Amino acid sequence: MKSILIVTTIPETITSFLLPFASHFRARGWRVDLMACGVPNCPECVQAGDRVWDIQWSRNPLDPRNLIVAPGVIQEVVAREQYDIVHVHTPVAAFVTRYALKDVRKSGKPLVIYTAHGFHFYQGGNPLKNGIFLTLEKLAGSWTDRLVVINREDEAAAKRYKLNAPERIGYMPGIGVDLQHYGPGAIPEAEIQQFRQELELSPETPLLLAIAEFIPRKRHRDILMAFDRLKNVSAHLALAGDGPLLPAMQQLAFDLGILDRVHFLGYRQDISTAIGASVATILVSAQEGLPRSVMESLALETPVIGTNIRGTQELLAGDCGLLVEVGDIEGIAKAIAWILEHPEDAKIMGQRGRERASKYDLRYILELHEALYLGHRA
Q: 296: burial class by Cβ within 10 Å (0-12, 13-18, 19+)?
């Protein structure tokens, strides 16, 4: 029986992206264990894995626990359980896990795989931070058997900077989107109407939706400032997500005088319904890998307004969405206005998006993972 340990910094990464992978390989007779900080307190994770392993580390890369306490825990668990594969996601977990296993993997087991959900160095990023993160990735690359990237910019960067041998670098189109769950007709109209009624919206009221954690790089301020410039004052805006900047954004909406048309939804599990209830979704981040919310919107034929950055620009290529530059508030406002003023054209754009989403079908991504896991070490 094959065995795999899936490692992330926090359980939310598992619940948001990786549960289908755990389920898929367990159904094929694999032993699938999960490791993250606080994972025993995550019921979905406990149910998804054969075993879960708690580890004390932090998303803060400067937290001393990351390199003092965590490596010993990883080494002990891997030595005892003798996994065939350790597949690690998210930057902190990826660096610490590869550091912990850098000598163990030389014996041929486990195979250490890292999926980079967007390198922390990127075009347009701060030069100093780019230099630091690139140096760390170069260092950790020598401790990695397979490096998986999820967008073409990162693929080119990985090869250009020789983060691993060319044959050990592989492109994979993200972590997939379930086209059966996210698809036209998959969401009952009654659920959409109930969602809109919850927000006290009439059937004619256009709703725009942003799905993102309230952190600086997601740039919620730009969305609110752009929404304030709209001449169409009948439109409403919903912001789904939580995070440290939420109170500040609520205050900004109040200060701009638009709070009566802006809905702060908090963390939601009915995202597909929210997308289906909206005329467009908006993601104006400064940095992404391959944004899941954009893939979900494309699959549901909901037009997307996104920034012209790595990952997002790939998804919206071929006129599958509207691209604006990072920080271009006027550009965001004009894109929103276009969506509202051209509903038929926006609908056609959404249909093109559905065709684009077929390239990111979860079933295809699962097949790629099977090939990755069952392949031979180069």
A: buried
Average pLDDT over residues 286-302: 95
Alpha-carbon gap, residue 148 to 125, rounded angstroms: 21
The residue whose two tokens read 């992978």 is 21
Residues 24-53 pLDDT 10s: 999 999 999 999 999 999 999 999 999 999
The greatest distance separating any two alpha carbons of the chain, rounded to the nearest whole angstrom, comes to 65
pLDDT of 378 > 60? The answer is: no
**From CA 225, how far away is CA 253, in angstroms rounded?**
9
Q: What is the mean pLDDT of the chain?
A: 94
- Whether residue 40 is preceded by a cis peptide bond, meaning omega within 30 degrees of 0, is no
Domains of the chain: 3-176+361-374 (3.40.50.2000), 189-360 (3.40.50.2000)
Of 309, 299, 297, 310, the C-alpha closest to 339 is 297
CB 305 within 8 A of CB 285: no
In 3D space, the residue among 66, 70, 113 whose CA is nearest the CA of residue 88 turns out to be: 113
Strand positions, DSSP E, the chain:
3-7, 31-36, 51-54, 85-89, 111-116, 146-149, 169-171, 207-211, 236-240, 262-266, 280-283, 304-307, 322-324
Return d(Cα 183, Cα 70) in angstroms, integer.
41
Place of tokens 């990464």: 13
Residues whose CB is less than 8 angstroms from the CB of residue 64 and which lie 6 or more positions away in sequence, other chains included: none
Mean pLDDT of all residues in 121-133: 91
End-to-end CA distance of the chain: 22
pLDDT tens track for 9-30: 999 999 999 999 999 999 999 9
Q: Band of the pLDDT at 172, cuts 50, 70, 90?
A: very high
DSSP string of 314-363, one letter each residue: HHTTTTTSEEE-TT-HHHHHHHHHHHHH-HHHHHHHHHHHHHHHGGGBHH
Q: Is 304 helix (H, G, I), strand (E, B) or coil?
A: strand
Let me know how long the chain is: 378
Q: Report the distance separating Cα 298 and Cα 137, nearest Å.
A: 32
User: Contact at 8 Å (CB) between 112 and 141?
Assistant: no
Using pLDDT thresholds of 50, 70 and 90, give the confidence band for residue 377.
Answer: very low
